[in-house]
Amino acid sequence: MNTLTTPSASNWLNKVPEVTLSFWVIKIMSTTVGETGADFLAVNAGFGQGMTRTVMGALLAVALFMQLRTRRYTPWIYWLTVVLVSVVGTQITDLLTDGLGVSLYVSTSAFAVALAGIFAVWFWVERSLSIHEIFTRRRELFYWSAILCTFALGTAAGDLATEALGLGFTWGAMSFGTLIALTYAAFRLGGNAVLTFWIGYILTRPFGAALGDLLTQAKTYGGLGMGAMWTSALFLTVIVMLVAVAQFSIGRRMNAQAAE
Fold first, then answer.
1. Coil, strand, or helix at residue 227?
2. What digits encode the pLDDT tens for the residues 145-159?
3. pLDDT reported for residue 145
4. DSSP secondary structure letter of residue 215
């Protein structure tokens, strides 16, 4: 699902990263951190669901404000926003399911309809859903609205598959991993790049959530018992390292461009 284009002046103005292997690794790990981080803060750290939602919502607002204020893709701001969107997306689904008693079937369907609506309006207004053309404020708002909805949808769909449908963490991760592989195969065989990208982006969320539960949950519940703290710390460390490399690479490219 790599939809790279030749770098040009417009690419420098694009507010989102190129779709590379590193992109997908960070994306999957950020989805897992969203699942494990939300659980750690709410349960292990003792913040509770209400405080966690308030703090993470405020941090997301600050990160999104910084992202909208930047003039070009800035790796550390972009991926900080994605991680916080992941946590907040998890919290939204948990609030509906655990706090308000909304069925996972209902929430999954509602988020799917909402996401379809965002894509429909986005395409109707901009005539494109390509992530290579996110260089206006309106397109960026459409983009982040879709991203937040994909995380909420993915959390609900992942919980639906692993809990309500009884797949469990291992089979849930394997099932969504297989769907991601099939989507990539469809792209390689000539499938629409924009469509396969968004399908893959949506699927990585429940895959990451199922992987997070598999790693953190106790062995008696079908997990590996690593715990939310250690899993979150491990994945965050890898994310920081990959983002640091991306930030350094961007800086070096910009310096080279300025020197020409």
1. coil
2. 999 999 888 888 888
3. 94
4. H
DSSP conformation class of 127: S
Is residue 118 over pLDDT 90? yes
Q: Assess whether pLDDT exceeds 50 at residue 4.
A: no
Alpha-carbon span 49 to 39, nearest angstrom = 9
DSSP letter (8 states) at residue 222:
T
Decide if 79 contacts 247 (C-beta within 8 A): no
What's this model's pTM, rounded to 2 decimal places?
0.85
Are the C-beta atoms of 222 and 168 separated by less than 8 Å? yes
- Whether residue 98 is predicted with pLDDT greater than 50 in this model: the reply is yes
Q: How far apart are CA 145 and CA 139, in angstroms?
A: 10
DSSP state string for 158-187: HHIIIIIS--HHHHHHHHHHHHHHHHHHHH
Task: Assess contact for 157 and 177: CB atoms under 8 A.
Answer: no
Q: How far apart (Å, rounded) are the C-alpha atoms in residues 218 and 231?
A: 13
